[in-house]
Structure formats: C-alpha cells, structure tokens
Amino acid sequence: MDNLYVYVGIIGNIISVLMFLSPVKTFWRIVQKGSTEEFQSLPYICTLLNSSLWTYYGITKPGSYLVATVNGFGIVVEILYISLFLIYASPATRAKTAKLAGIVDVVAFAVAVLVTQLLMDGDLRIDVIGFLGAGLNIVMYASPLSAMRLVVTTKSVKYMPFLLSLFLFLNGGVWTLYAFLVNDWFLGVPNGTGFFLGFAQLAVYSIYMNSSKPSKIVIDELHDGSQHEHLLPSSTSNLTEPI
C-alpha cells in the first residue's frame, strides 16, 4: 500500500500519453493535404506552456518525478505539433503562430522560471509554480463546455469525440486519486475539476449518441459565429496530462 501512489501515477502517465497522442490523425491529415486549412494552433501553444509548467513543478518538488516525466513527454509532442503547424501554415498564419508561441511558450515560461528562481525558494517556490499550473489547468479543463453546448444545440455527438472525452474522464480521475495519495492539492483541484467535466461530457454523449444528424441550418448558424475547427478536438484542449 505504501507504493500505491507509484502504480496510480504510472497508470496516469499511460493515460496522459494516449491523450497527448490523440491528435496524431489530425496532423497526419494536415501533412497529407499540405495545409493547416482553418485549424488553429492556440490549443497546442497553451498545452505546451501547461506541460512546461508541470514539468518544472515535477522537477522542483521532491518525489514528483511521475509528474515531470509525462509532462516532459508532452513538451516534446507539443513542440512537434507546433513545428508541423508552422511548416504547413500560410505565411501570415505562420508569422502569427510563431509570435504567439514565442510570447506564451518562451517569454512567459522564462519569466515564471526566473521569478521563482531568483525571488523565491523552498515551499514558496513550489506553491507558486503549482498555483500557476493549476490555474492554467482549470482553464483548459473548462474548454469542453463550448463543445457540450454545441452538442446540445445540434443534438449530435459529431462534435464530441468519445475516446477523447473518455480519456479526459479517466485522466482526471486517476490524477485526482494520485493527488489524494501524495497529498498534493495543486494536482488534485484541477484534475478533480477535469474528472467531473469529463463525466459531464460522457453523460451528454450518452444522451445524444443515438440522435439524428444535425440539420444543415443549425450547423450553418453555428459556423456563422466563431465555431472554427481546432487542431485539438473541440472537447479538449488538451488537454491532456496531470495538468
């Protein structure tokens, strides 16, 4: 029982890796078409920052190597995704993406590291890093709310991939259990939130999974707004990891 948290953390790592890899099919489509079309890179830019913060947290806090390993893998995957986006994006979109990634993933992360290293130490440093990671994590876990609204409006689960919703639910549940076992509420609060939101997604999916296809009128009305397809499926962002 003393090593239970290790086994739970390993399971969490496996689920998180599957979540990180879930958009591979989308990027394969981008490579085949040679264009990013209307896809957006913002979810991946945010996920890279999120993974970077949690890797930093895992390295800084003693005994949190399981958090660092999976998010270190996330950093590699997200950099690959963003690189592919930059390669296949139009010149204007490429410039915009590069600028945004530089500000969010380089400047913002560098500032966080410098401030916590130079002005803080000990438990205060760990708490501040955890607070930053947890705050960003909650925002990312809340992103599926728009997808749930779309499903209810169109009465179709076309916009909510089942496997991704399932992984969000499992990921949140496993890392919440891990956080409880190691008494780490910076991990527990955001992943507990993700667990309940994942459950809500699965509940909505079960309600509308047998519904008829959405009408073209409803879809057109929604698309006339800001409903553009993202690189990550709508139900994420992806997030993805003990974030």
State the total count of DSSP E strands. 0
Main β-sheet: number of strands, strand sense, barrel status? Answer: none
What gap, in angstroms, lies between the N and C termini?
A: 25 Å
Mean pLDDT: 82
- Identify low-pLDDT runs: 225-241
Number of separate helices: 10
Proportion of residues in helical segments: over 70%
Strand content: under 5%
Q: What is the H/E string?
A: HHHHHHHHHH
Taken from the alpha-carbon principal axes, the silhouette is globular
Structural class: mainly alpha
Topology diagram in text:
Blueprint: H1 4-21, H2 24-33, H3 42-60, H4 65-88, H5 91-119, H6 122-142, H7 144-154, H8 162-182, H9 185-208, H10 216-223
Helix pairs in contact: 1-4, 1-8, 3-4, 3-5, 3-6, 4-5, 6-9, 7-9, 8-9
Description:
This protein is mainly α and 243 residues long. Helices cover 76% and strands 0% of the residues. The chain contains ten helices and no strands. Helix 3 packs antiparallel against helix 4 and helix 3 packs parallel to helix 5. The longest helix is centred in the middle third of the chain and has 29 residues. It is globular.
